[in-house]
Amino acid sequence: MTSQSKVKIAIIGAGPVGSLCACFMAEYGYDVTIFESRTDIRLMQTTTGRSINLALSERGIKALQFVGLDNILIEELTEPMHGRMIHSTDGHNYSIPYDIFKKKCLYSISRKELNGVLLTKLEKYPNVKLNFSYKLVDIDFSSKKLTFQTVENQQVIILPDIVFGCDGAHSIVRQHMIRLPMFNYSQSYINHGYFEINLPNTKENVLTPGHLHIWPRGTFMLIALPNKDSFWTCTLFMPMDKFPLILESGKEEILSFFNKHFKDFVNLIDPENLIRQVISGKARTLISIKCNPYHVNDSFLLMGDAAHAIVPFYGQGMNAGFEDCTILNQLLNEYDHDLKTVLRMFSLRRIEDAEAISDLALYNYIEMRDLVTRKSFLWRKKIDKILYKWFPQKWIPLHSLVSFTTIGYKQCKLINQWQDQVIFRMLILFSLFIGITLFIVLTSIILK
Amino acid sequence: MTSQSKVKIAIIGAGPVGSLCACFMAEYGYDVTIFESRTDIRLMQTTTGRSINLALSERGIKALQFVGLDNILIEELTEPMHGRMIHSTDGHNYSIPYDIFKKKCLYSISRKELNGVLLTKLEKYPNVKLNFSYKLVDIDFSSKKLTFQTVENQQVIILPDIVFGCDGAHSIVRQHMIRLPMFNYSQSYINHGYFEINLPNTKENVLTPGHLHIWPRGTFMLIALPNKDSFWTCTLFMPMDKFPLILESGKEEILSFFNKHFKDFVNLIDPENLIRQVISGKARTLISIKCNPYHVNDSFLLMGDAAHAIVPFYGQGMNAGFEDCTILNQLLNEYDHDLKTVLRMFSLRRIEDAEAISDLALYNYIEMRDLVTRKSFLWRKKIDKILYKWFPQKWIPLHSLVSFTTIGYKQCKLINQWQDQVIFRMLILFSLFIGITLFIVLTSIILK
Where are the transmembrane segments (chains A, B) (predicted)? Predict the structure, then answer.
């Protein structure tokens, strides 16, 4: 019996981050129990309308490696996306590859499938216990007492040594932490929301595979992510106050809106199906969560969306959550499983990076819905491409830094700021050079 | 029976803002019921250690005028403070008056006394009902159902038409609102805390009356506010991590700390009394709260600290809360008691001002504990004084704008920024003038 096996770990939430965190702790021999408020996701029907697609990238893959799930997941359950396919208003389409030289890509995966694989993996550990339909109703932070309500309306009290709050953006663990002194917290909704539409992959459906498709329209956009199950998950992002104009309008108005802005998309879907999905749909909100610290006392730690929910525009929400597990793992080794220190250090090491990806994700919405159509952006991409080709180790564009490396998010932001400065100075020098050359040429002509 | 008398108003919290808000609504004939989780403050013993002194200024006075309580409160229950008395480290004291020309001042008042007067006033309205020891435990926002727990452990359910959440910085109403979509919220603790000491007004006690006394020490400070009951409420503000060094140390260390930094203060208090208060004391935290919006649906509104708790360094917390009542009153008249519109407009009209005073209050801590000892600050005060004398309507210094006018806080901030710019430009012009004069003088000497 190792010393770890005596430590009782409670993990709140059996979503992707909670499940992966449980795998990590189980690998080290801890006595792990998971409590999930909902039923087993593997037994649930897929619900449309909620964000059901995730984009797995380097940080997520690295964390999955530790539990040996990276290859099987990528090979069997994902669809690669090598770049963005931009659908212009004039019907012209063009591809912006994510990583033209190193050929790296994002992997589109269904949240349900991914979560299912992790849960099935968990069931194989003898030191893990899974409890579904256990709703956390109370926490006493000083005595570490957790009170749950089961589906049979019974109260269950447990007294674990360590609690990981992995219960998502609307975390109950965090709801209790908010009342504690010196716990800094902010939740901010952006003024834009989203609404999902399933696009079946029929014979007539000719969306180019291997891409994340974007219809950027300035203040709003439609995107489409490929699925293994031969359909595309399409999401319409737009200002919240504009949704009623579509969702609550008549069939004619709905078709006219889609025809006006997403003509080639309408050609891919049965109009009746589109109208049915829109009429039965509901606009959903997008929230950013920031906390500081993530830990309470020596025994409670928030991870994943519970600690740092972000808007989905960088496809980094789950990757950042999975990276939390990698960081936790690093700290367990660095501090020789002294959990008290590990929890405290987790807050110190993680908060700045989480705030950086939160900002980057907000910025990326503007890039996706608007900048990708601008000449200045496409020129910047070209300069990036040339410098990346010449200095593949030194000049990595921002999107690649975030999606295809494990460099801290804050560092990615700083590197990008430095790149902006370098390009700005290069432009100044280039202008100077042109100016001086012109001066010399003109002077020599005049003096001749 | 007026149409107002049919509208059932529930006010959560019988603190100063809840009580005043109830007075306003009672004046208009609404059917008002107040629910307070604690017992009647008038029956409670004064507890030391918690912030018990408030500085009443223009905005608070204006709101009290509406219910005819301004004069009686000022005359019978307050101690005027005409300026700040700065106690330097070298033992030298100097006064910085608040408003040298218009002779305006702040009024120090005990929170308990003020609250008591408002409650006694409330009891005289036939359309007001006061319930103490009613703890709000649940809110159903769609059905407007409020559930309370009484001191006898009974559940009481009420169904009001409108709910005002005036239950302070740790508001239960707000705790429930946090879970609603599109409710933006942030709570941030500053790294500094406070601890209170009572200084009896003995014969030997020679703190100059009519002042707010400050011992500014760079990263920390001691302040003293006068009380009607012949004692001073003294507050030590400092970084949270420094408190254990004092509060948990021995008698010698406590005396040595106060002797080192607040020599003249120690001379005013019995050392045994000081040590007793310090040893039994506890450092308290300081929080800033921001929400957006303040209202939910057509029937719930946060007011006072529940909506916008701020740090206490501008003495504006209660004044801003009382001003909320004035704004509410203006909107009731503007929109002819259409409460649905009034609640929505309250958010629109109030949020930016509340955020401005929150920022100003944070800034004022730096001014009080540090800047007041700097030459540059004192010079700026002198320039302000001259311009204020010459243009008493046009050039009102920031502190006077905030404390002695009812100009919106955001506007006060903007005026101050404009003043900074004017002074900066004047300095540039003055330097230019000196430079040119010197150049002319030197040239004429050389050419002679």
Answer: 422-447
